[in-house]
Amino acid sequence: MLDWKIIRKFRPVNFCRGVGVSFFIIQEIFIFYWEYILALHNHFKLLIYDFFKMVQKDGEKKIALPKTYKYFSVFLSMKCNLKCSYCLNEFDENFNRKRFRELSGEEWVSTLNRIESRPEVPVTFGGGEPLLHRDFIYILNNLKPELKIDILTNLSYKRGIEKLLNEVNPDRIKRDSQYASIRVSYHPEQMGDGAELLENVKMLKDAGFSIGIWSVLYPGPKELSAMNHMQFKCRDLGIEFRIKDFTGKYEGVDNKGISFSILHGDYSKYSDSIFQENTRECLCRTSELLIGPDGNVYRCHRDLYAEEFSVGKITESDFQIKDIFRFCNKYGQCHPCDVKVKTNYKQELGHTSVEIKDIK
Fold first, then answer.
1. What is the predicted pLDDT for the residue at 45?
2. pLDDT 10s digits, 163-192
3. How far is CA 182 from CA 84, 125, 138, 320, in A?
4. What beta strand segments (E) does 59-191 contain?
5. Residue 324 and residue 123: Cα distance in Å, rounded?
6. In a 10 Å sphere around its CB, with 0-12 CB exposed, 13-18 middle and 19+ buried, how is residue 69 labelled?
7. Could you give the CA distance from residue 185 to residue 213 in angstroms, rounded to a whole number?
8. What share of the chain is helix, strand, coil (3-state, %, to 5)?
9. 243 three-class SS
10. Sheet of 240-245: strands edge to edge?
11. What is d(CA 262, CA 267) in angstroms, rounded to the nearest whole number?
């Protein structure tokens, strides 16, 4: 805001009384007034911009998140700077990170600001690696305050970390929750002992960010040992550390040279929904809003990673979320993330992302 008292104080009459005003003083007066003219110009430009922005918002149709929805995830980018052998993105052998088109920051902001969520259901930015999106910081800084933010990241992209530290207010990514808003993945297979990761997390924590480390309980001996050491390092540094169950098949060869395949995760609710050769028809209803990098909305992770059966595009002006059962002919090849029995946002066990009925 402009301080008009200061402007009045520096009226020309106060400077020009008397005889022999130096050219230097006149020049300073001219520069002073010129700067304020520019400031006024920019001030009125912002007012006009805000006015039109308000008019535009009033004309937009809001998108209400159904009360039954427990999770809201935006996959900003499928690009990733790591290559974990057990990545959940790559259950489909045809999955290709490079084929996904990405919306711009402006497109994401104008779209996500239409969504009316609840404080306990933040928008969770993931991928891929969200820090690799070219406009990630712009998105964080321009979302409406009512929309809470969580981030899933491997926190190993240096430029992204620097921008997060220097350009984002830590309070913007902080909410009343049982777990940290920034959940950093520790992958021993790609990160070794995690020394650099700990350094990055500690740096953000000291800056005031709500951050912790999560690790997938991959059953490989080396990975288990590394995770065991990591939990004690985190304890010593005052960093939250949690374990997530490994999801999917763990395959290998034992000491006797015999091949094995062990399915990890609880799929008791829909036991024949995954890793089947043949598929069946069913009706399926999701409890999650899953949005791909190009704005397409999907009913489940299987469809998202395969880029199939989009139910609409979030950028469309008339798009609305429908809390309904939808026909599906892919039962038997569901993604483990959708049918695994897990905890909900309240950390209560027994939740699955989808509800399935009328299996034929």
1. 42
2. 999 999 999 999 999 899 999 999 999 999
3. 20, 10, 17, 28
4. 63-64, 71-77, 115-116, 123-127, 149-153, 182-186
5. 21
6. middle
7. 6
8. 35, 25, 40
9. strand
10. 240-245, 211-217, 182-186, 149-153, 123-127, 71-77, 288-291, 296-298, 312-313
11. 13
